[in-house]
Amino acid sequence: MTSVMPQLAAVVLPGTGSDEVFVRSVFARPLAALGIELIAPPPPRGADVVAGSGRLLDEIAGTVEGPLLVGGISLGAHLATEWALRRQDRCAGVLVALPAWNGAADAAPAAVAASVSADLVAREGVAAALEVATAGVAPWLAAELTRAWRRHGKELAASLRAASVHRAPELARLPELKVPVGIAACTDDPVHPVAVAHAWAQALPKAVLRETTLAAVGADRQVLGRAAVRAWLRARRA
């Protein structure tokens, strides 16, 4: 990734219960290597996380000259793709990291996890919910959850619940998106099945998928960002 793309900014949204700190750790350096400015806004609070993210992208687009590269992780990838479908006139491409489902959430693992976590947080509080959520998970992921969930605080349960019922882009709509899309997936991630990423890649007319692993991301967060950015670069040349 040596070519520089001046005057291009990327707005990247975090996943469910996550935050902009994680987004920066994943995408800041891979984008900077291309001369692309990363804009990583904090997620809207509570139940406004879905609708508020769309408004946030509109607001940022109104302050930046030229098209935006948009993207996100998990829920953030869904929301960025929805915006791109609506605003292709202002979109230079999409960075999709760990897409979690299409259409209705139904029994998607990420949606179920968010719903269960929302109930637990509402019932027991953030601290007690973290004890359950971080039990047996990799230390790096436990640390990310602990920081982000504590930052969400009393708004966490509403945010998780809104994410768990959000209707992601339908596979039938993805062919309408003509901008280049870079998709990154982890082959060892049961919450974000790699099969979902493959379905996105097959439905999108200009998409490239690159795979990595959660184990690699645990050692270096940038692995996920580099996979998405490199996939997007290749999709631009397709």
UniProtKB/TrEMBL annotation:
<dbReference type="InterPro" id="IPR029058">
    <property type="entry name" value="AB_hydrolase_fold"/>
</dbReference>
<protein>
    <submittedName>
        <fullName>Pimeloyl-ACP methyl ester carboxylesterase</fullName>
    </submittedName>
</protein>
